[in-house]
Amino acid sequence: MNAIASYQYETLQVSITDNILTVTLNRPHKKNAMSFQVINELIKLAGRISKDRTIRAVILNGAEGTFCAGIDLGDLNHPKNTAFALWELIKPWQSAFQRVCLVWRDLPVPVIAVLEGYCIGAGLQLALACDIRVSHPDCQLSIMEAKWGLVPDMGLTQSAFGVLREDTLKELAMSARIIDANEGKELGLISHCSEVPLEQAQKLAAEFAERSPDAVLASKRVINAMYDQPAKTLYKEKAWQLKMMLGRNRKLASEKQSRPAPYLANANSAKFLLSVNLLVLFSFDSL
Question: Looking at the whole model, is its pTM more than 0.85?
Answer without folding.
Answer: no
